[in-house]
Amino acid sequence: MNAAFHVHPVDLAIVALYVVFVVWLGFHFARRHESAEDYFLAGRQMTWPLIGFSLVASNISSTTLVGLAGDAYSTGISVFNYEWMAAVVLVFFATFFLPFYLRSRVYTMPEF
After folding, report:
1. Domain-by-domain residue ranges, the chain?
2. Is this structure's pTM higher than 0.85?
């Protein structure tokens, strides 16, 4: 394969507009927040469904979608016990450890 890599100017313009929009959006919303805690924790105003959706979205990655499916193909469906155990562990930590961390008012582990 000796094909040269070529990006059309329209594609570059779309990517550039997207980057400019994301940077503008970041600056626009950053002005609304007074502190880092306000920015990273949404002023501690988020409801539990939003936090739950955020947690699920953070745990879904290419490892989950592609890697575990490939591993299940090669080793068997038992690899999905990994996901079930993760759900059990998340509930365990939320029940027993999370209240302690919430009382300490920290929002990063290095800060603790």
Report:
1. 9-104
2. no
